[in-house]
Write a structure and sequence with these properties.
With about 500 residues, this protein is of the alpha/beta class. It is built from 15 helices and 26 strands. The longest helix has 17 residues.
Length: about 500
């Protein structure tokens, strides 16, 4: 990453690398210089090769400077999604076990008091001048210590969630970040242009893809809080050729009141990540944008690289599949015991890609389960159609995706179950045309004559769960179904919700 940043600064100089909605911006040259000064400051605080720095910062200029600075010292950077609650933040801190935490006051809640924390001020609406970014940490005139070449040194940790709902940190080295760069743009330098970053900077979409974005000389427009109206403004103003997002965001774009009056003629492709999109959404978006709709299937563990539909895909591929493996990626369907399954049958999707994680941070057992013989187990079930396209069939675990964010029922149930009006609860997904899936709380009430309302559950859980994890519907039942093993029959519950 350090080599890419330095070369990009030399090549692109004063070109804007990052621009916020507020107008605050950072050039390639200033990013390189500012991160040098922050790196020098971090070095005086004992940060060096294989140190671990955790960033609990808003997505923006300070975050990317801190990430670049840590990389220049050979340190590993982990990020906390600003949308997380204090309870979730505490768990990430315990998992990472960082040597130093950089946090703003509003994003420090939940960080244990015995941890080494340096509070910084981030007010990126105040000025366009880079000299104010992380000025508490910067040291001018000090040389950054020389960094020995080590392509396998951990560079970043990107958090996802495990089967129990607890976050898991997938870690990547420079070797994998360079692989992402090669897979995404073929190592090309200088394509330039503009793109929009609508995800938190702690997300794999930034942490593992920053290298190729910098190598291409792109100006990255940052939306800390995604807005359909603002994204359409950016498309019109900068003539963006591509609209990126998850299916829920694409749906919200087309619900904007003035959508059909916008000048979207520059858009040549819609790229939707995080899994499949509802067929009706794909069809509508292709018609109203007048552009191909490309689906990108990947995961945090794969480095954000996996399968994809083609720009010229027919309806069968574009509407109902996640396409084929992207160049440099291999995919297979395997049985529970790891053997290939015949074409047409459902199996677990395994990926082989040089961008795949090195493992889960501080989780050797989880790593051994996910990485086998150079292959990554995705946990998703799929089949392959006659055209060679992969069609997702479900998940080996209970996780579902709401608007591009993974939701794990067990975690949500643990919180909802503390409500005194709840005797038993199961959370299952219900298909939704905008969000893809939403959570339904199936509740056995403590008092059948006074069951809890959805509003009760949400109000009681809002401080402990991120908004996207909260249920959006409730169903009161006398009892939860059990399978032959006397375990909760989630399939029956999910099948019922699929009718709506």
């Amino acid at each position: 990453m350090t080599r890419t940043l330095t070369r990009a600064a030399q090549r692109y100089g004063d070109r804007v690398a990052f621009r916020l909605v507020s107008g605050a911006e950072l050039s390639y040259q200033n990013l390189d210089q500012t991160s040098d000064e922050v790196a020098a400051g971090l070095a005086t605080r004992g940060v060096g090769p294989r140190s671990v720095v955790l960033l609990s910062l808003p997505s923006g200029l300070a975050y990317v400077v801190a990430y670049a600075a840590a990389a220049k010292l050979g340190a590993t950077t982990a990020g906390v999604n600003p949308r997380m609650r204090a309870r979730e933040r505490e768990f990430i801190v315990d998992t990472v076990d960082p040597d130093l935490i950089l946090a703003t006051e509003p994003l420090s809640d939940g960080i244990p008091t015995d941890r080494r924390v340096e509070l910084v001020k981030v007010d990126e609406n105040q000025t366009k001048e880079s000299k104010y970014i992380l000025r508490e940490l910067r040291r001018k005139g000090d040389d950054v210590p020389a960094l020995p070449v080590d392509p396998d040194r951990p560079t970043c940790i990107c958090f996802t969630s495990g089967s129990t709902g607890n976050p898991r940190g997938a870690w990547f080295s420079d070797r994998q970040l360079e692989a992402v760069q090669g897979l995404d743009i073929g190592g090309i330098w200088g394509s330039g242009g503009h793109l929009v970053s609508g995800t938190a900077f702690a997300h794999v979409g930034v942490m593992t893809k920053l290298c190729w974005q910098l190598a291409s000389g792109t100006t990255i427009h940052v939306m800390d809080y995604w807005s359909a109206s603002e994204l359409l403004n950016l498309v019109e103003q900068y003539k963006l050729p591509t609209v990126n997002g998850v299916a829920a965001q694409i749906a919200l774009l087309m619900k904007e009141p003035n959508f059909d009056n916008r000048d979207l003629s520059s858009v040549k492709a819609i790229v939707a990540g995080a899994g499949p999109s509802p067929p009706a959404l794909v069809a509508e978006a292709r018609e109203r944008f007048g552009a191909p709709y490309v689906i990108r299937y990947s995961s945090t563990e794969s480095g954000g690289v996996g399968l994809g539909t083609a720009l010229d895909a027919d309806d069968a591929e574009a509407l109902y599949t996640v396409g084929r493996p992207r160049p440099g990626v291999a995919a297979e369907l395997r049985s529970a015991d790891g053997h290939p399954v015949p074409r047409g049958e459902v199996g677990e999707l395994w990926l082989q890609t040089p961008s795949a994680m090195s493992g889960y941070w501080n989780d050797p057992e989880g790593t051994a389960e996910a990485l086998i013989g150079g292959w990554l187990r995705t946990g998703d079930l799929a089949s392959i159609d006659e055209a060679g396209c992969f069609r997702l069939a479900g998940r080996t675990k209970e996780m579902f995706i709401r608007g591009g964010y993974n939701v794990y029922p067990i975690e949500v149930e643990a919180v909802l179950g503390t409500n005194p009006a709840v005797s038993q609860v199961a959370v299952v997904p219900r298909p939704d045309p905008t969000m893809g899936e939403v959570g339904v709380a199936v509740v056995v009430p403590t008092d059948p004559d006074h069951p809890p309302t959805l509003e009760d559950l949400v109000a009681d859980s809002r401080e402990r769960l991120s908004n996207y994890k909260l249920p959006e519907a409730i169903r009161i039942v006398d009892q939860l179904p059990l399978n032959s093993g006397d375990k909760l029959d989630r399939l029956t519950l999910a099948s019922y919700e699929a009718q709506f």
